């Protein structure tokens, strides 16, 4: 049995690691180990709070106005906008995978997630209908 070093293993595997497809971080590996990852956590929390504020102050009133203008009931509007909201993450993952990482995520991401969303939403509605 012979031992291979890392370069020989990398040469044997023609596919580069997928992590190399993403843009580099602002911090080095050593800086992240020394605590720079805390800045990533605070930035993520700040962006989640900002998203909540934008949704509460702007998105919900906009949806209410659209519903009033189109004479839609709250149930129909909620179902319509929830359907769009459940498909939006797959769209953004596909855009990032296609244009930034130049990977082969493709249509399978959208189709697979759409099938799951349709089946999971229907199942949850069926479970909740008896309550």
Automatic annotation (TrEMBL):
<feature type="transmembrane region" description="Helical">
    <location>
        <begin position="76"/>
        <end position="100"/>
    </location>
</feature>
<comment type="similarity">
    <text>Belongs to the Ca(2+):cation antiporter (CaCA) (TC 2.A.19) family. SLC24A subfamily.</text>
</comment>
<feature type="domain" description="Sodium/calcium exchanger membrane region">
    <location>
        <begin position="42"/>
        <end position="128"/>
    </location>
</feature>
<keyword id="KW-1133">Transmembrane helix</keyword>
<keyword id="KW-0813">Transport</keyword>
<dbReference type="Pfam" id="PF01699">
    <property type="entry name" value="Na_Ca_ex"/>
</dbReference>
<feature type="transmembrane region" description="Helical">
    <location>
        <begin position="36"/>
        <end position="55"/>
    </location>
</feature>
<protein>
    <recommendedName>
        <fullName>Sodium/calcium exchanger membrane region domain-containing protein</fullName>
    </recommendedName>
</protein>
<feature type="transmembrane region" description="Helical">
    <location>
        <begin position="106"/>
        <end position="129"/>
    </location>
</feature>
<dbReference type="InterPro" id="IPR044880">
    <property type="entry name" value="NCX_ion-bd_dom_sf"/>
</dbReference>
<keyword id="KW-0106">Calcium</keyword>
<keyword id="KW-0472">Membrane</keyword>
<keyword id="KW-0050">Antiport</keyword>
<keyword id="KW-0406">Ion transport</keyword>
<keyword id="KW-0812">Transmembrane</keyword>
<dbReference type="InterPro" id="IPR004837">
    <property type="entry name" value="NaCa_Exmemb"/>
</dbReference>
<dbReference type="InterPro" id="IPR004481">
    <property type="entry name" value="K/Na/Ca-exchanger"/>
</dbReference>
<keyword id="KW-0109">Calcium transport</keyword>
């Amino acid at each position: 049995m012979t031992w291979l070093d890392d370069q020989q293993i990398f040469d044997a595997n023609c596919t580069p690691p997928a992590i190399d497809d993403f843009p580099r971080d602002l911090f080095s590996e050593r800086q992240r180990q020394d605590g720079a990852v805390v800045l990533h956590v605070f930035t993520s929390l700040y962006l989640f709070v900002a998203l909540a504020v934008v949704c509460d102050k702007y998105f919900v009133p906009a949806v209410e106005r659209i519903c009033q203008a189109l004479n839609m009931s709250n149930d129909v509007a909620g179902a319509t906008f929830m359907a769009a909201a459940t498909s939006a993450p797959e769209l953004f993952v596909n855009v990032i995978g296609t244009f930034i990482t130049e990977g082969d995520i493709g249509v399978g991401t959208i189709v697979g997630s759409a099938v799951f969303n349709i089946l999971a939403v229907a199942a949850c509605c069926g479970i909740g209908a008896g309550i």
